[in-house]
Amino acid sequence: MRRIRQFGVALLGFAVFVTSAQLARAEGTGLPRLPEQDHAEWTAIGRLNIAGFRTRRACTGTLIAPLWVLTAAHCVRRPDGTTEPPGNVHFVAGWLRGDVLWHGRAAAVHTHPDAARGPSADVALIKLQSPAPAEILAPIPLGTLPVGDDRANAIIGYQSTRSAMLSAAFDCPATRTLDQMRVLDCPVTPGLSGSPVLSRTASGWRVTAVVSARIEQDGHAQAVVVAPGAWASGLVDGTP
């Protein structure tokens, strides 16, 4: 998880943002473990591994279309603000205790045009070199983040304290909405950056946001999530 800059604190105006180092020291935090027998339902959610000459880190990404993986922009941005080259970005689907269902390599890395301006555009899309095989991987399509709807949302991803398997919570109600961001009442830890926020619809689960950061309010941890918006759906729909 990244540290939100001062403008993020001023924007939300009601919470303390927590750094990655503080999160790493926290005990008993994060999402519950997803039972192993349930992993087969969520193989579209994978580890996003970034490995360069001097870089090695991981986030979570979601296959939203055969050629596209959704994650957080800060997962694929270097400290100097540049975007990671595609050769450094790998999507590992169905990762469970060392077993891999499918490994996809990035052909291109796209960050939201306003990603450098603030957390409300902390969204990125990874275009894969080849489509994920339909016979083993079913993408979870994009959906619209409900407005004024207090129903629970789900967050599923690979947190660093349990990186060999998925962690999940299916009861993450929204507590506050601001622009493209929403605060959900579920704790998140490093590694869960880029994890999908899933909302159940009449047509099934839809990815409606990605995890960007964590905040503390009165000692209670909550997740800050960002809707992909029209930019993401337009890019995916424009795939040749």
From TrEMBL:
Signal as UniProt keyword: yes
Domain of life: Bacteria
Keywords per UniProt: Signal
Transmembrane segments: none
GO aspect biological process, one term: proteolysis
Residues spanning the signal sequence: 1-26
Gene Ontology MF term list: serine-type endopeptidase activity
Domain Peptidase S1: start-end pairs: 25-237
Listed name of the protein: Peptidase S1 domain-containing protein
